[in-house]
Amino acid sequence: MSMEPLLEQLIESLRCLPGVGPKSAQRMALHLLERDRDGGKRLSSILEQSMEHIGRCSICRNLTEHKICRICANEQRDKTQLCIVESPSDVIAIEQATGYRGRYFVLMGRLSPLDGIGPAELGLEQLGEQLGNHPPSEMIIATNPTVEGEATAYYLQRMAQKHGVAVSRIAHGVPLGGELEFTDQSTIAHAFSSRLAI
pTM above the 0.90 mark? Predict the structure, then answer.
């Protein structure tokens, strides 16, 4: 049995979301149409407004509906600390899990020459200008512990040193409450090589 063209378009449109396959998209579409049309209309309206009005902060490149995001506009934030992250979701994670009160710079990715992602795509020229004009006391590199994340961290470290800015890297290793026998080898190796004196 074939579906109505508009229903097919709705299902196909929902597939643009990460992790949503054909069955999940079909389930979402049918749920909205059968049980929550008001929710669907609200979602449609907010989605349209978001696509139209949300852009990047002119200072940190985080997602915002204003020229400058709330964090950058907050005078109470510590301007001597600058945390470099790969994505807006990293900002949310750090804000929710820590007491960090400094500023951010959001790369919107990581260096990956094979995928055509170089310094220009990550806004590193803009970061270089910030380091030159308003250097923080400390730049915290919070990229992910992947091959690309480590390469990006190394590039950022060189940038910071060029501007005379102290650099730190967030720790990676055995998770709190984890057991060594169940931790993968690369995590153990990284934790062992990054051990700290106590």
Answer: no
